[in-house]
């Protein structure tokens, strides 16, 4: 589904991505973890075309998407969400999701119907006519997810959709993400909430200093104590095992 | 009253209005002045709508929309006076030229990522440049301006009776409303709203932001240019400051903002308010600056207290009721 090879990106003197290489296979739920500032969001932004890599290639769904603009990549089926939610603040929740749905149909009726269905599925059914600005953090995270999902993506890049949520809300999102995957959408997610990573992901990539330093099953990554301690800080391995 | 019924009632009133004042059979009192004031309001509403399509719906706030108005006015007038082209064809050509200019300006500015106040200043600079050019190049006859020979036949897009210009302005205004309504119901309009609210999110959801903005400015430019031809045919004279004067840019922006930017009926409401205010201040005093000072105060009041204009005020009142 997705194959990044040697992706490098620097901001001035700062090397944010340093030859990052990874693959995400069809139909999987894959997690990307790493300490703050490791380059996770930068990697997603580069994959989705928001940043042009200095070098390296990005293959997606059988084609080369390196250097394509974001809208062209979204059109092909790779859609990202934002760590800092980016709602269309003064539009209603439904209109927000309709924007996503319009990617696959020019007809308003059809777009509205699909959008309403997606929004209900994400538990936004009773807020359809509220403005996006009026949503809580949890609501906004759901809205990010709903909008992206309404584009009928092949691959979703979810950047910390659980950050700032309480355990109940996290549980709900975990269930939702799993259902989205079961409907055939491949999931690549950045997450600091280890409990979610352990329960959702089939593969985990660890990034630190812009390099992918480990890759494996959640259990293998969690027990790779040296890696985890070195890059996630002291005690992280224990926390993951007990999550 | 439903929105549809209100619109129908408004349209009926607009159709009947000039009959109150027109000719010997005037229902109320014969008054070409009253008809012209109505025409001015409808025309201001149309120009305001042209600004609204870009500035209100897509957030492309322009300070130089007169650029398109003047281009349309000069285009049909030069074709007519200089090359004998019928003004009806000239009108089509002017509208097309407005669209092309909108697309060109859009390409130049949006592709390099200029937006917000930078875009506003760029449009202002373009309009001023065109004004200076119109003053100095030969084919516009410079500061002398161009007189359109009197030829009061419908075939020459001139009318003896002001009522026909009134109805023409009404047709423009109605088509502007139709375009605005379409923007609230179409994918294109939804994309513009998304771009106005958050460009990054729009791009992430597959919207080609530059392309949609260029299309929007082309549409808006076409409308303003069509307004330029109408003006030239009504007053039969244009010069650089009439065609490209910054005050008309300000009026377009004001009309939309006072009424409610990004709403279908905002420019119509705003035009009613601005024209009424203009006529009132003119009746009260000959001081030329007074109108502008009032506009300024009004704009400050609107921006400060009524971000969604008069239409927003009505909506809020309805919600509270
Ligand atoms: N646009 C930018 N310009 C300059 N530096 C940037 C930019 N974006 C990110 N960086 C820097 O690149 C590095 C990687 O940032 P990034 O946002 O990818 O980290 P992250 O892994 O997502 O962190 P977090 O867990 O805090 O979200 C950081 O040092 C950050 O300060
Ligand atoms: Mg991040």
Written overview of the protein:
By secondary structure, chain A is of the alpha/beta class. Chain A has one domain: Rossmann fold, CATH 3.40.50. Chain A contains 10 helices and 10 strands. Chain A is globular, with a radius of gyration of 18 Å. The two termini of chain A are 29 Å apart. In chain B, helix 2 packs antiparallel against helix 9 (209-235), helix 2 (32-56) crosses helix 12 (266-284) and helix 7 packs across helix 9 (209-235). Chain B is built from 14 helices and 2 strands. By secondary structure, chain B is mostly helical. Chain B has a domain at 34-244. The model of chain B has no long low-confidence stretch (mean pLDDT 90). The structure holds adenosine-5'-triphosphate and magnesium ion.
List descriptors:
heterodimer; A: 243 residues; alpha/beta; Rossmann fold; 10 helices; 24% strand; B: 321 residues; mainly alpha; two-stranded antiparallel sheet; binds adenosine-5'-triphosphate; binds magnesium ion
Q: How are the SSEs placed, and which strands pair?
A:
The complex is a heterodimer of chains A (243) and B (321).
Chain A: E1 2-11, E2 14-24, E3 29-33, H1 40-47, E4 55-60, E5 63-64, H2 70-76, E6 78-80, H3 93-101, H4 108-121, H5 137-150, E7 155-159, H6 167-182, E8 186-190, H7 194-200, E9 203-208, E10 211-216, H8 218-223, H9 225-232, H10 236-241
Parallel strand pairs in A: 3-8, 3-9, 6-7, 7-8
Antiparallel strand pairs in A: 1-2, 1-4, 4-5, 9-10
Chain B: H1 3-16, H2 32-56, H3 66-83, H4 87-110, H5 117-136, E1 146-147, H6 162-185, H7 187-197, H8 199-204, H9 209-235, E2 237-238, H10 240-244, H11 246-259, H12 266-284, H13 288-305, H14 309-320
Antiparallel strand pairs in B: 1-2
The site of adenosine-5'-triphosphate has 12 residues of chain A, from strand 2 and helix 1.
